[in-house]
Input
Amino acid sequence: MTLEILAGIMLPFFGTTMGAAGALLCKRRALATLNKLLVGFAAGVMLAASVWSLIMPSVEMASERNIPSFLPAAIGFVLGISALVAIDAILPEKPDRGNGVRKNKMMIFAVTVHNVPEGMAVGAIFAGVIAGSEGIPFAAALSLSVGIALQNIPEGAIVSMPIVADGGKKGKAFLIGTLSGVVEPIAALVTIALYVIVVAALPYLLAFAAGAMVYVVAKELVPEIKNGNWGIMGLCVGFVIMMIMDLAL
Output
């Protein structure tokens, strides 16, 4: 594997790390004041990512494979929600520092799960470049990797910054935000190694991640932003930013 391909695989992880660094740059007091705006922003980012980063690519992949376009999306989506229902039942009802810890755990899991199929998508296109038989130029693969890296910046931020807002240490928040993106290069490398086997499941995994993210938004984030305009404004801003990044890139 060339250094150029390895760098392309690592780009999305670097994007997540840049976003996670937001926890180091923001003042705790300001984060606490803007917590509702931040929660709303996270909800908007996750909703937009669920639609344009996950469900739509799942539908497109299914159509290209002559599978009913709705089938992988529907199956994966339901399985993703079911998995989060099970995990939610396991998490304690009253964590040490209040409901914020529970919300953050769910968000970290959802974003991490969402990063797995994104990493697989990067691995799949670079596998085509390596094979040479797919007619995929390196520039196209790099473009996809850069696009995912850019959209990972707000995703890294929505993992790390709420931890600081709820009283966690900045270094720990940055580390957790960064680690949520580690799964992407790992998933990319696994996909390259097991291209034929893994890529077949990609439409289902994309929708699975979408279901997980929508569950967290509905269960953990929306209840926190329904009272007051700051959270709603944050949701709209996050949704529009993520939508533009997904469609433009």
